[in-house]
Write a structure and sequence with these properties.
The structure is a single chain. By secondary structure, the protein is of the alpha+beta class. It has 2 domains: 2-113, Roll (DNA Polymerase III, Chain A, domain 2); 125-248, DNA Polymerase III, Chain A, domain 2, CATH 3.10.150.10. The chain is 19% helix and 42% strand. The protein contains 5 helices and 17 strands. The protein has helices at residues 7-18, 71-78, 129-139, 197-207, 241-248, and strands at residues 2-5, 32-38, 41-47, 51-58, 60-63, 65-70, 86-91, 94-99, 102-107, 125-128, 154-159, 163-169, 174-180, 191-196, 212-219, 223-230, 233-240. Strands 6-2-3-4-17-16-15-10 form an 8-stranded antiparallel β-sheet. Helix 1 (7-18) runs antiparallel to helix 2 (71-78) and helix 3 runs antiparallel to helix 4 (197-207). The longest helix is centred in the first third of the chain and has 12 residues, at 7-18. It is elongated and about 55 Å long.
């Protein structure tokens, strides 16, 4: 594989892909960033079975291919590169990154062991990026930070025909924000999805400047998948339907509601 890409565009894409990687994992393969080069597009992806991030950027691709590399290490390198085009080449298990006078050699990780990214369902609705970002910042602060009870460390999204509600609680307080959105759903059953507060806060910050954010909620009887997409960037989060229902039924001792 060989490609050349703008330094600032590449650095920003790597930074986005690694933001949601777990700080610690028992599976080193999940700390990697998958880079796929084809045509004139470069796609960077990360996935830890619960949360995924994917972005696509333009690049001059001389030799298409796919490689998996340590996300944290690549991010450290990309953020320190000089202001010059970045050339990325692979040979066997070695990856060469060149930019101006800077040269780095990395070892690739086994692509065949990397999990398949989740498939995103049809669009459920769209919402203005600034309104969504503001709602997330107002609600996510009320989510619990105690990992002993993971279900209340998330923010519940409840989708109606014309509105989207965000709900978070730490059992002592509850924050609720309801905002209008365009769903195209009339008379359909309400949809629910539970998203980790940390993930949703990152989504809110990343997509806050986007004109609109597309939201997709899909899944089967056991798992719920919610995806956020804007400006060639996508973030997905998985949760169990049982967990989502328990969260909806939580009752805080003292509640303070914000709208």
């Amino acid at each position: 594989m060989k490609f050349e890409v703008n330094r600032d565009v590449f650095s920003e894409a790597v930074s986005f892909a690694v933001k949601l990687l777990p700080q610690r994992t028992t599976l080193p393969i999940l700390s990697g960033v998958l880079i796929h080069a084809d045509g004139d597009r470069l796609t960077l992806s990360s996935f830890d079975y619960e949360v995924s991030a994917q972005t696509s950027i333009s690049a001059q691709i001389d030799d298409p291919g796919t490689v998996l590399v340590s996300g944290r290490l690549l991010n450290d390198i990309a953020s320190r590169l000089p202001n010059a085009p970045v050339t990325f080449t692979t040979e066997d298990s070695k990856i060469s990154v060149s930019c101006g006078s800077a040269h780095f050699t990395l070892l690739s990780m086994p692509v065949e062991e990397y999990p398949t990214l989740p498939e995103i369902g049809p669009q459920t609705g769209v919402i203005p990026g600034d309104a969504f970002s503001e709602a997330v910042s107002q609600v996510a602060v009320a989510a619990s930070r105690d990992d002993v009870t993971p279900v209340i460390t998330g923010v519940q999204l409840e989708v109606g025909d014309n509105d989207l509600s965000l709900i978070a609680t730490d059992r002592y307080r509850v924050a609720v924000r309801t905002i209008a959105w365009d769903s195209g759903r009339v008379g359909s059953d309400p949809l629910h999805a539970l998203v980790p507060a940390r993930t949703l806060q990152e989504v809110g910050r990343t997509f806050g400047s986007a004109s609109t954010v597309s939201v997709s909620i899909s899944g089967n009887s056991d798992r719920e998948l919610i995806a956020f997409h804007a400006d060639d960037k996508t973030v997905t989060s998985c949760s169990s339907r049982a967990t989502t229902r328990r969260s909806a039924g939580s009752s805080p001792r003292t509640s303070t509601t914000t709208r």
